[in-house]
UniProtKB/TrEMBL annotation:
Gene3D superfamilies found in the cross-reference section: Ribonuclease Inhibitor
UniProt name for this protein: Leucine-rich repeat-containing N-terminal plant-type domain-containing protein
Keywords: Leucine-rich repeat, Repeat, Signal
Localization annotation: Cell envelope
Amino acid sequence: MKLFLSLCIFSSVIFISLPSSYSCTSADKNALLQIKKAFNNPPLLSSWNPRTDCCTSWTGVECTNSRVTSLTISSGELFGQIPNQIGDLVNLRTLDFSYLTHLTGNIPHTITKLKNLDILRLKQTNLSGPIPDYISELKSVTFLDLSFNQFTGPIPGSLSQMPKLEAIQINDNKLTGSVPNSFGSFVGNVPNLYLFNNKLSGNIPESLSKYDFNGVDLSGNGFTGDGSMFFGRNKTTIRVDLSRNMFQFDLSKVKFARSIVSLDLSQNRIFGKFPRELSKLRLEHFNVSYNRLCGKIPRGGLLQTFEPSAFSHNLCLCGTPLKSC
């Protein structure tokens, strides 16, 4: 019995004294330490201690089967550019650098080594320059969020070649040019499309009319022409925001999906009579102000529950909640 107890105690001591980095591969650990060094060893990453296990005690690091699969660093003081060593974390599925206002530069080309990446979120930093074409080499990405940055130049048409992409959020940047024609030929899923608050312009490719977007927000740009291709009676679209552009189309000819709950067409050049079809929608948000609409607002449904401001500043709209006709 004494021998058995001694062996148990000895085994326990051996187990406890094993290096704490046992569950973290040396390759991933070295890559993370190089990333920390490139950021000049910031206090935000003080838990990244080479004497501890990167899979169990390092801030923002998550592992699966001893490999780093998620790196999330947000809301802190982090100075510099995204290090090239990010590409050495080849098993990453989630890369999230967000709310880091001192993160500068562009997205390094080495990111294309992350062939398993599912979520790429670089939101509200100070990244700048063009959105690189090589982003499209990330064939496993389903969620792309580059919003609230300083990116300039055109939208890369190559984004349409990402076969698993379900959401494009590149809003609140300084992007210019038009929506690429290639967006009419997505090779995979039809993504949610969030391009609002940029400096984009031009007509929207008519080929986008064949897609059943879940959500579209193009507000706060300089788009012109017909924006009605996002609508259709047989679609399942939930949210459309085309506000603060220069779209021109006849609203009376638009067929609306019954699924729409949020519709904002304000501050455009949309004309025509007010369609009765809108009274049949279960709208939670609605605004058609500052357009060129005319005629009587149909009664029924939820239209009369909205403030007069949602209908104001049109050519000759009348009826509740505006003045009677």
